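job 3f2a | input accepted
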Amino acid sequence: MLRSYKGVVPNLAEGVYVDESAVLVGDITIASDSSIWPLVAARGDVNYIKIGARTNIQDGSVLHLTRASKSNPDGYPLVIGDDVTVGHKVMLHGCKLGNRILVGMGAIIMDNVAVEDDVIIGGGALVPPNKTLESGYLYVGSPVKKARPLTEDELTFLKVSAQNYVQLKNEYLEEGQ
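job 3f2a | predicted structure (177 res):
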């Protein structure tokens, strides 16, 4: 499940759960209490992936990035903040996600997108390249559009969702011992 690329192996902090069917390759750093669920594919080969604390990447999601080039000297790494829930079959490619974000099932977030803190992205949404999603809103559609401000309950749920996955990954880790 953890594979080297050019001598670089994924770096997992304490308390990280990675399902045995997931594949993580190369320059990937995952902070404490995060979880990677079945059939996730993450390739830190042409740039790097950084995943924050208490973040969960759910089943069948694909994480990748963009290599550096003459026109884009730094390329686009994939950076995901703390307390982020990435739903099933999500595609994240060379984007930056802040903290306390929920990415709905089947969403696609493309190169050079910046998602600020406290955002919900609806299932099946397409976030095209070079967009910024402003903090505190629900975004839906293909291409994505700002739908409305998040409610207080939704804002609270963002952290609850992440904490639920911390509890679940702890149960998986205990069972594996």
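job 3f2a | The mean pLDDT is 97.
job 3f2a | closed
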